[in-house]
Amino acid sequence: MTSVATTTLVIAAFLALISLVEPAAERLRLPYTVLLAVVGVAVGAVASFLLYTPLTSTFDAIVAPIVNLPFSASIFLVVFLPVLLFHAALTIDVREIVEDAAPILTLAIVAVFAAAAAIGFGLAAAGVPLTVALLLGSIVATTDPAAVVAILREVGAPLRLSRLLEGEALLNDAAAIVLFSVLVAMLSGGGEADIAAGAEHFVVEFFGGIVLGLVGGRIYGGLLPRLRGSRMAEVTLSLALPYVTYLVGDDVLHVSGVVAVASAALTAGVFARVRLAPDNWEYLEQVWEQIGFWASSLIFVTAMALVPRLLAGLQPEDGWLLLIAIVMALASRAAVLFGLLPLLSGLHLAQRVSGAYKLAITWGGLRGAVTLALALSVTENTQIDPAMKNLVAVLATGFVLFTLLVNGLTLRPVIHLLRLDRLSPLNQALRGKVLALSLAEVRDAVRETAQDYAIAPGAAAAVTTRYGEAIDALAREDTFETAISDDDRMTIGTVALANRERRIILDHHAQNTVSGAAIERLLRNTNRLLDAAKAEGRGGYAETAQALLAFSREFRIANFLHRVLRIGKPLQRQISVRFEILLVRRLVLGELARFAATRLRALFGAVVADALGETLATRAVAAARALDALRLQYPEHADSLEQRFLQQSGRRLLIARYHDLYEEGLIGREVFDDLEREHAAGRRHAAHHPPLDLGLRTEELIRGFGMFSGLGEVEVKALARRFRPRLLVPDEPIIRKGERGSAMYLISSGAVEVVLPNQRVRLGSGEFFGEMALLSGQPRQADVVALGYCRVLVLSVTEFRRFLREYPQAKEVIDSMAETRNRANAAGGAAVK
Ligand code: CMP
Predict the structure, then answer these.
(1) I need a labelling partner for 104 at 20 to 30 A (CA). Which of 233, 506, 795, 811 fits?
(2) Which DSSP symbol is given to 755?
């Protein structure tokens, strides 16, 4: 057989093995990697035995490739590692972990250095050369969170905690691999550790990799719309991304390829989550889950199959070294979690994590495929001393085996011992309540089914009474009202409300009725609501809801760009997004009110439901007011958005209808595909904003003023050069009392309010303000604030002077108005228009 053929055969055999191990692990309730490791070692042992035993040579041809792998270990680093990390990073939603970015980064980097240093110096004290010891330290510094996260999810640990762990594991893989490559370079160079050069190398590789990944992920995001919604193309391009970034990083730019891959995946995920149709995103995730599974499983079996051969060179003192490494690793992880994490939460940079969870996380620090891939690659490095190579490989593999067999197998009992798998009294009571409610609903449904199918009343009663008994039993031990204080119930209710909001918004995303940018913002907002609800209950929720209506930072930047640099596009886009967000929010709030009145009332009682209903009503009023302010200025755009919304809903219904016809067998696949294709373009249409006309054309605005009604085309054009159009947003302060005057404003549409000592004067279309300070040279007389969205024409001081000289009639109007206002203000301020 050719070597390609043997390689393929070995891989195929391993794949077959993997497919059998996965369901077996499920059945035995063992962590999958643990069983895979055991089977891998067994296969390696049997193969070695058959190859070397003098008893038979019948199987030599079959087992030889397993013992002496026909492919080099670089296949793991180049082919499997990039996809492994890409998959791990793709599953992380950056937006969900931004608030924990500080602890994740610190934990990941500090933990890697702490582990590498602890293990390195520990082993060096036992006689291992320092650089080799550090190298081993870096290899086993990576953690594989899969097992512990799976169990934490199962026992209902806070989601934020598992996200923190996943984020940390990803970055510590990246940091450990960079450290590893720096150390390998040192060892291959034969030089001793030069800390400064090594540190610089690390920083360049790590941060260079992040930047490269950002660029790569961005390009991927930019190309997505060009793939016209083809899921095959989207996945294919995503498969190219890790390899391209990895190789460009490592071989061209000499920054860390693995870091680049991780950062590319995080970035690509941000774009793909909103730019892909939801089904396509799901498909992409599924394909990647499969690819990641293959990569990690193959690394596992292959490395494990080599274990018997590696362990053949095991010296008794290696056992001691392994023990030192394990103790040091546990100690350093515990030190970081118990020492650094509280420090970070003390600085409000991280959430608080209870001691029990910290212990569970320390114990759950299993090592996995990444450690094995690195260990394998060391065995093939020809520039490292063979004895050292062997030591590193033996210890690293031993380490992985230990964590899998000891920590992995005891993790569940440890979590039980720490009582983390027990529901809190609060959740316990909630569980009882949910169960009772659901059982009651099911009992009614069963009763109806019995009637529909004309089932004998006796048989039906036998079934329904059983439900009744269960419900009664639950009612007897119902501790919901007593175990949970009113405050707690209110908090749980508020959290449920925020969760529900998230779901509704995701539904809108799935139905493609709203643009990606609006969905993204809405989801971010609901995450804030959810966190506020969890941390501060109803009060925090209400406060955050109020804050969400304020103009976002992006909006304020866009407004600034428009005002100062006269760049209008961003503002146009922001207003359009705000429109959409308010539109969706109004719908969502309606649905939420119904949810509170029915489901929440049933679960939490009238008091909670009513209070939450009130909070929702306040939100609805505020949202409606914000929407009305926009609609007032841009009625056509509001109409067109609403129309688009309906159109998308209609399109979706139509496709659903086609689908039904196809399912019923009335039309064939070809017809269905053809009909669907016809409407596919419209689907994509929703991803973009319909253009919004801010209506800020200077000449049109000028013509709207009575003062200029007599002017001809040429004069209007000349005036247009003097005026600058500007959009004011609700509550925007335009003039502050006491400032020096810099411009006069003509209101083209909308209204502003002049805040005088005794009263407020409202000025509307056709009126002007800000003239007094310019005429008198005195400071501004009053604050002026925009009441809603207004279009104004701005005349700067210099243009103002020129304007008065050129247009004596206008000067007259302005002078006399200033005069009147002045007099009124001196007399104690009557409204003067
Ligand atoms: P200025 O003083 O430059 O800045 C504040 C502006 O408020 C002022 O110019 C006028 O344009 C406007 N203003 C001041 N007093 C009145 C008033 N009594 N009625 C209407 N507008 C006023």
Answers:
(1) 506
(2) E
